[in-house]
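Quick one, T. Sequence first:
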Amino acid sequence: MEKLWYVVNTYSGHEESVKEKLLMRTESMGMQDYIYRVIVPETTEIEIKDGVKKEKKKKMFPGYVLVEMVMSDEAWYVVRNTPGVTGFIGSSGKGAKPTPLLPQEIDRILANMGMSRMDLESEMAVGDKVNIVDGPFKGMMGTVDTIDLENNRLSVLIDLFGQETPVEVELYQVNKIG
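Structure tokens:
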């Protein structure tokens, strides 16, 4: 069973309280091995009002919370029955388990927040084989040459016209092979 990202629908304006309740339920019900991260996707916008700069947090998807979890019957039950949760996105209902987000989808959302799906320090290493899934080098495979932890970027060596060439890619643009 692998941990994947799911989209949970909530009452609009209740995203933060759902996040807190879900984290408390995860703790109290001993589900830490099934439910990992709960995120309310937000971006920071700079607003200038009366000549004063203000940073304002804005929800990217009002009414939705992202949950990184292993989809088991117990974890599914805990999330579904958290106060404020109205259901999962990608579930047909009638007891059907929801569809997880694709790695590229969650990577883009997390990258906008300065976060990453992968823990670069423990999940990616120089020499790892990767498949480029987005950008101008989409469909090419390569080897990780360097890792920029601060910016969630990788230098990947790919074969371009018979020449090993380093290309810079964002973390969300690659999937690790194996």
